[in-house]
Amino acid sequence: MRRPTLLLPLLALLLAGCAFAPDGGQDDRPDDEAGAGTADGGIWRPAPGTDWQWQLSGRLDTGVDVPVYDIDGFDHTAATVAGLHRDGRKVICYLSTGAWEDWRPDAAEFPKSVIGKRNGWEGERWLDIRALDVLEPLMAARLDMCRAKGFDAVEPDNMDGYKNPTGFPVRAADQLRYNRLIAELAHDRGMSVGLKNDLDQIPELVDDFDFAVNEQCAQYDECADLTPFIEAGKAVFHVEYELSTSAFCADSRKLGLSSLLKKYELGAWREACQPSSGPGRTP
């Protein structure tokens, strides 16, 4: 979830709105040809500093020269994933696992009993993650979709409901249980999985997840909390929205983060923190 903030303009709120190839053949490209990182038991694990592109809206721009793409799992086809693979990219499947979204094709399958308060984004409401008997089969089906389309990894969003007013008495222990369930479901399907935000539980969850995805840790002076992932040899894919690259890139490089400046709608535009020569702009 792109972090809601009291300073966020209303316009930005409205804008939010397996390693097997689709033909059934195994994707046996070496990791250095298909996204930086290593394979641990067949699970791809991106290395710290791996460059990436995150695009969740607009027509997908496949021309950004990076080894990793993070795109919406529902919005894109197996053919799109296969095309990115042919270009040597690993592809991450974005899903919301902690919030209900009213526009998704499976929205009607979620009973009202597990749909809570709005989370700050149009059409989204928190889920009661305590209801594992209800949510596990629904999330398993979503992860099956990611696997069937050939995605290498999953970015499960809204993984920190226990820190927010969800409408349910969700505790930290409930969040740990649910997050580990999502990680297990992804691994069972041969995909790696990233921990989205949920900084306070990183010490307990770093061993369960293969990388991290974070929003605005520089703005909120939290980036050092992600160090356990870097020390474990796992990438931290990080974005800022309201700072200039000059305000956070130097620290990102020191910490080993894979940092981008993006706009809230998460279209194709990006400004990356380059490893040595400073921030570089990619339209």
From TrEMBL:
Family annotation (InterPro entries): Aldolase_TIM (IPR013785), GH (IPR017853), GH114_TIM-barrel (IPR004352)
Keywords per UniProt: Signal
Protein origin, superkingdom: Bacteria
Signal sequence interval, chain numbering: 1-21
PANTHER family according to UniProt: ALPHA-1,4 POLYGALACTOSAMINIDASE, PUTATIVE (AFU_ORTHOLOGUE AFUA_3G07890)-RELATED, ALPHA-GALACTOSIDASE
Location of the Glycoside-hydrolase family GH114 TIM-barrel domain: 52-268
Name the UniProt record assigns to this protein: Glycoside-hydrolase family GH114 TIM-barrel domain-containing protein
Matches recorded under Pfam families: Glyco_hydro_114 (PF03537)
Location of the region described as Disordered in the Swiss-Prot/TrEMBL record: 24-44
Presence of the UniProt keyword Ribonucleoprotein in the record: no
Family annotation (PROSITE patterns): PROKAR_LIPOPROTEIN
Species the sequence originates in: Streptomyces rishiriensis
